[in-house]
Design brief:
Blueprint lengths: L14 H4 L20 H10 L10 H10 L2 H31 L3 H28 L8 H9 L4 H20 L4 H34 L3 H31 L1 H21 L14 E2 L2 E2 H19 L3
Antiparallel strand pairs: 1-2
Length: about 300
């Protein structure tokens, strides 16, 4: 049985996940001891890790959503699902200027693969929403995205539509502004993908596997997570190179994390949990304090490998 197919091996310990070299998956990262893949190796890994949304089967997922989940459970699940659906669409539209601003051809080639990945992730969530009937009667991707956006909190907009977009808009008119690119990669790869996305994927997938629910979604979501680890590995290599190049890039990373860190923590908390203490607010069987600790450990490992912790 392959590592990917084995049910006894934790996802992040599977060979296909370990192959990404994402520091968060390596205990050696606690000591700064991780060999990051080169941009060329990351591209080759992308070629080996292809998958297709059309291969996924959401038949049982539709039964689970309409017959197994009650209204309250569907409501609670929608925050996490909506954050990913809309988040994938937001980052997909921001990658173009970042790709054009990348200093080397190898970096630009890899970022082109990430654009393709993010488009596939949007298609994955759209297929799930459409085939499962999350929003019955919605006729288009745009309608489903609009409906999903209503579930998001204020911090989501601050992170995606303000902090990230401001850097990307700057790169669109000044692609040689490497400091803006460093800030954008910090927000995109380290915070949005590294802290938020992979934390959410970990807890949501674990919950569905324990409950035996949404098998088609779990299949696709696991592949999305593998892609995200590959993207984060790119971000770690790029930022490590920039830190070693000039002290001002180190300062840009620290400054950016200080700006968006509190906002990112807010994204982890659904708006209907306002006023509930972190250790009491639970989603998918874990507290907000649990999810925050998981995200912080992952960020700390990556920062050590980059050279900041």
């Amino acid at each position: 049985m392959s590592a990917e197919a084995s049910s006894s091996t934790p996802r992040t310990e599977r060979s296909d996940f370990q192959a990404t070299s994402d520091p968060a998956l390596q205990e050696g990262a606690d000591r700064g001891e991780v060999n990051l893949l080169s941009y060329e190796q990351l591209y080759a890994l992308w070629e080996r890790q292809q998958w297709a949304v059309s291969d996924l089967d959401f038949t049982q997922d539709r039964v689970d959503w309409h017959e197994r989940f009650d209204e309250e459970e569907r409501f609670q699940r929608l925050y996490g699902l909506s954050s990913f659906f809309v988040g994938e669409q937001r980052v997909a539209q921001e990658l173009g200027p970042m790709m054009r601003a990348a200093p080397t051809e190898a970096q630009r080639i890899f970022l082109c693969t990430q654009i393709a990945d993010e488009a596939r992730h949007v298609a994955f969530f759209d297929a799930f929403y459409r085939e499962v009937g999350v929003y019955e009667g919605s006729a288009s991707l745009e309608q489903r995205l609009d409906a999903a956006s209503a579930n998001l909190n204020e911090e989501f907009g601050q992170l995606f539509d303000e902090a990230l977009k401001a850097r990307v808009d700057r790169l669109a008119v000044a692609p040689d502004d490497t400091e803006a690119l460093v800030e954008a990669v910090t927000i995109y790869h380290m915070v949005i993908e590294g802290m938020l996305a992979l934390t959410g994927q970990h807890f949501i997938t674990d919950y569905n596997e324990r409950e035996g629910t949404l098998p088609g979604f779990v299949d696709g979501f696991t592949k999305v997570a593998r892609d995200e680890h590959r993207h984060v590995a790119f971000g770690a290599r790029f930022l490590r190179e920039m830190v070693r190049t000039d002290e001002r890039y180190r300062e840009a990373i620290v400054r950016t994390l200080g700006e968006v860190g509190p906002v990112a923590e807010g994204v982890l908390r659904p708006k209907w949990m306002e006023g509930i203490p972190d250790d009491e607010a639970e989603l998918f069987g874990f507290s907000i304090a649990d999810t925050r600790a998981f995200a912080l450990q992952a960020l700390t490992r990556r920062m050590k490998v980059i050279g900041l912790a």
